[in-house]
Amino acid sequence: MRQPTRHLALVFTALTAAVALAACSTAPGAAPATGPTATDATTAIADPLTPTESTPPTHYPSATTSARTAANVALWYESGGEEQISAVHRQAEEVYSHHDEDMWVIDFTWFFDYVREAQEYPPIPDPKTQAAWSAALKNISEGGGAVYDATRLGTGETSQSAEEARQVERGWKELAKGIKGLEAVEERLGRTFGLQALTAP
Q: Which one-letter DSSP state was computed for residue 47?
């Protein structure tokens, strides 16, 4: 009857020693285990496509940029840009309609006000469209200015010198170029961004 008790005591002693060794291996200052821990395994298989605050997703940068630009252009257009384009286009067409009528007195009452307001309006948030818009406004402003200056409105003159006639012709050509530029801007806004004029020019 004494032998089983001794056997159990030996087993208990072995278990106690094993627990003590395990405790020593995890105590502070003990050498780290060589195998990967649960934390290491989690880090190793983390999804590389999961966005974080420090690393924004870059799966489709061109698509993201295009969508952002389109939204900004639509906001510009719908919050007053369309009215700027339509107003300038309407005024330019009105002035240019007198080109073949050989009129000496042309009404520029609102022409330069609309052009100046459009030039001072915030730029279109798309570089290519803005460049075309600026160029069209420049052609319209300079063309209309050349015609206006050469007609010498309010001086009582009823004839033009040869130089004034050439200046008027240059002004008409510049104005026509600006109108075509405006049409190109409107076409680009429709083709690229799906924006259609709400007001007829």
A: -
The neighbour count for residue 199, using CB atoms within 10 Å, is: 11
Length of the chain: 201
Integer CA distances (angstroms), 32 to 21, 28, 36, 39, in order:
14, 10, 10, 14
Cα end-to-end span (Å), the chain:
114
**Cα separation of 133 and 86, whole Å?**
12
45 Cβ neighbours under 8 A, 6+ residues apart: none
Distances in whole angstroms, Cα of residue 30 to Cα of each of 23, 25, 95: 10, 6, 91
Residue with tokens 């961004």: 193
Task: Look up residue 87 and give its two tokens.
Answer: 């107003």
Q: Residue 17: in which H helix or E strand, if any?
A: helix 2-25
Cα–Cα dist 184/90, whole Å: 15
User: pLDDT tens digits, residue range 46-84?
Assistant: 343 344 444 433 223 334 448 999 999 999 999 999 999
CA atoms within 13 A on the CB side of 186: 20
Q: Which of 172, 74, 176, 85 is nearest to 126 (CA)?
A: 74
Lookup: tokens for 179: 């109108």
